[in-house]
Amino acid sequence: MLNRLWLSFFLVAAVAALARWLVGGEAGVFASMVGALFDMAKLSVEVMVLLFGTLTLWLGFLRIAEQAGLVDMLARALGPLFARLMPEVPRGHPAIGLITLNFAANGLGLDNAATPIGLRAMRELQTLNPTPESASNAQILFLVLNASSLTLLPVSIFMYRLQQGAADPTLVFLPILLATSASTLAGLLVVAFMQRLRLWDPVVLAFLGGAAVLLGGFIAVLATLSATALAALSSLLGNLVLFGIVIAFLVAGAWKRVPVYESFVDGAKQGFEVAKDLLPYLVAMLCAVGVLRASGALDFALDGIRWLATAFGADTRFVDALPTALVKPFSGSAARAMLIETMQTHGVDSFPALLAATVQGSTETTFYVLAVYFGAVGIRRARHAVGCALFADLVGVIASIAVCYWFFG
């Protein structure tokens, strides 16, 4: 699947570039595409430098948590649920605790912590994989849920809106929460369909129902806060939880008489080993994405969507927000640039800008996640992971459009 997908990026880019040259006379498109290749290769190295530091730091702390028994405690507590969602993973396996920590970090917007923990979880799942070059069912479910972008506190989007002069930076909080919940549910359902998981099992329903009640209560409490209080809480909670996790790991390690410094160094060495294997996968995927963007293929797609919306007499305001949606699966930095550009062009509180912010908060950089997570364990056959992850992204975009017309239309 990844082979065909990677090749298709270049082929689609070539067709789009030829069309721009032969029809539009834009000969410079080929220079842009070649430039994108080298720019993305440079970006891959820059991303790797960041990953080296982040992985080394968080896998060091995670090693302390493991030796203190915290990961095993999480694994035992969630064993009944994962026994049904991931039947090939034994109860109490370390991967279950790591997966839980990854989901918690993603939900709180702690990307720097989530990625290293997720990579460690993927490596633990790989130890159970009977065909190491092909993604297992458990790895696919984990990756799709990870890529479905369930974020409870989208602090970074509040910051972008504040920087652009929004009177109420947190105006998109509830729309993002609703849209990202829809994308995560869609990811779970489509993987359950592909893998024939029994979601109607009483244990699964009890866990998911409990999570829904907690999420609903959290939303209800936050909805009572003023915009200023909500923004302050979001910023405080994110940083407080992040530092609290570090202190909890250290205190638990000291309580269990774990040599915390030596354990940290041992885990940090593992982070270095994980990171150094990722560069070829990142270069391959990011260069393909860069060429696709430079070719103008995304612009052709936008023009086609606008024409269809006009032909059916539909409101076309949503089209101006779609650049963020189209590039988000490929590049987080490009999506952020598109979001800021939309805010500056149409106004920070315009409908396209509000929709672009909602899309940014409810979708994920799917191909980057695929490259990093599968690349870290040498998986070459993604099976149904790509299709399921993109379906979750599509639902996130559609839900964002529907919710924004409901809230702001």
Question: Can you summarize this structure?
Answer:
The chain is an all-alpha fold. Helix content is 77%, strand content 0%.
Distance between the ends: 39 Å
Major sheet, described briefly? none
Q: What structural class is derived from the secondary structure elements?
A: mainly alpha
Mean pLDDT: 81
Number of domains: 1
Low-confidence stretches: none
Measured as a percent range, the helix fraction is over 70%
SSE ordering: HHHHHHHHHHHHHHHHHHH
Descriptive terms for the model:
mainly alpha; globular; 409 residues; 19 helices; 77% helix
Q: Your description of this structure?
A:
The protein is mostly helical. It contains 19 helices and no strands. The longest helix is centred in the first third of the chain and has 39 residues. The two termini are 39 Å apart.
How is this fold's topology laid out?
Elements: H1 2-22, H2 29-67, H3 70-77, H4 79-85, H5 94-107, H6 111-126, H7 137-147, H8 155-163, H9 173-195, H10 202-223, H11 227-255, H12 260-276, H13 279-294, H14 297-311, H15 322-327, H16 332-346, H17 351-362, H18 366-375, H19 385-408
Helix pairs in contact: 1-13, 2-6, 2-11, 2-12, 2-13, 3-5, 5-6, 6-7, 7-9, 7-19, 9-17, 9-19, 13-18, 16-17, 17-19
